[in-house]
């Protein structure tokens, strides 16, 4: 039964938390609230909501994307090294657990202008800030510098807060050498 219902309940949790974060963000930013409300009112005034009308809701899409960027539900992934490699003078052995901080780039200025600002226009043309090349730890065989740094510094959950308090991601060594 768990195998059947597990994904359903997991989906409810992520959708509920994302929806709550979006409601908070939209209501916190009056200008965004007014834009979203005007767009939604326009769609409902035109008749029944259709998949096409949902696809054309650019303001709402920007608000959803910015919510996912600023208030991510899954901020990290645990993985195991697939082979031995050296990173910044540290040996990471095969099968060693790694903490992959998948949302680090969401708050780096090299990827997002003023990353602490809730800005729903950053995903629209011509800016398309979400399309900039960024580390993708789940699609490469070698973890990103941030994830390896976290693995080496934060081997236990009790140290995570200590490890990430006051950290400067830009100071991470940019090179990875695989054994």
**Percent range for β-strand residues:** 5-15%
The tally of helices reads 6
Which strand order does the major sheet show? Answer: 3-2-5
Largest sheet: 3 strands, antiparallel
> What's the number of extended β-strand segments?
5
Query: pLDDT below 50 for ≥5 consecutive residues: which ranges?
Result: 136-179
- Categorize the overall geometry: extended
- Fraction of residues in helix: 40-55%
Number of domains: 2
SSE layout and pairing:
Elements: H1 2-28, H2 30-45, H3 51-55, H4 58-70, E1 77-80, E2 85-87, E3 90-92, E4 97-100, H5 145-153, H6 157-164, E5 177-178
Antiparallel strand pairs: 1-4, 2-3, 2-5
Helix pairs in contact: 1-4, 2-4
Quickly list its features:
single chain; disordered C terminus; 179 residues; three-stranded antiparallel sheet; extended; 9% strand
Q: Can you give a write-up of this model?
A:
This protein is mostly helical and 179 residues long. It has 2 domains: 2-70, no CATH class; 77-178, no CATH class. Helix content is 44%, strand content 9%. It has helices spanning 2-28, 30-45, 51-55, 58-70, 145-153, 157-164; strands at 77-80, 85-87, 90-92, 97-100, 177-178. Strand 2 and strand 3 (90-92) form a beta hairpin. The termini are far apart. Residues 136-179 have low confidence and may be disordered.
